[in-house]
């Protein structure tokens, strides 16, 4: 893919401090990724669980259309199979669903990819890593918790996220969808079909999700 990966763009700034993409373009890219993951889950004879959805694995063509890559950690299962057995943790820290670390959060399934997608979208919106030890304020180290507080605070939201005056509705939609995707219980997360519907639908139709509470206190891992 000639434009390389999404990671090259969402964390970068030009000489004037501007981001490469405005929020409407990020919404288009996020919707394209959601369609791709939905196809893996619902469009194939066997369901494909990727287990490593992250910016580095989203490649872009000249029109900045996203393509999901790197299926080295993927697993196949039947479309009616709700539980996946795993012998070791798979994925990249910061994107791994909590049930992959611990069965106390639920069972591993296609909803684990939904979680990774939500974390990816939050990084796209915030232009920073979800778990960033370089952030000076300790309450901003875990971005999902921090951005949720800005979202419900209303008056702080525009200042908290780097956006133009006409982009607030798009940003709110992306954040709300992402926060639904990263709910700690897999049963509370939407399917990727529902995620696509939320991304292309109206902001007014979206309910505010519960506050995420799974944070960077999760244990270190060894990638499979």
What would you say this structure looks like, in words?
By secondary structure, the protein is mainly alpha-helical. It has a single domain (about 5-200), classed as Transferase(Phosphotransferase), domain 1 (Orthogonal Bundle). The protein has helices spanning about 5-10, 25-45, 100, 110-125, 145-155, 155-160, 170-180, 190-200; strands at about 45-50, 60, 65-70, 75. The strands form two sheets. A two-stranded antiparallel sheet has the order 1-4. Helix 2 runs antiparallel to helix 4 and helix 4 runs antiparallel to helix 7 (about 170-180). The longest helix has 21 residues, at about 25-45. Mean pLDDT is about 85; it is low at about 215-224. This is Glycerophosphodiester phosphodiesterase protein. It comes from Dioscorea alata (Purple yam). Its EC number is 3.1.4.46.
Question: Secondary structure elements and their pairing?
Answer:
Elements: H1 7-10, H2 23-43, E1 47-49, E2 58-60, E3 66-68, E4 75-77, H3 98-101, H4 111-126, H5 143-153, H6 157-160, H7 168-181, H8 192-200
Antiparallel strand pairs: 1-4, 2-3
Helix pairs in contact: 2-4, 2-8, 4-7
Q: Gist?
A:
This protein has helices at 7-10, 23-43, 98-101, 111-126, 143-153, 157-160, 168-181, 192-200; strands spanning 47-49, 58-60, 66-68, 75-77. It is mostly helical.
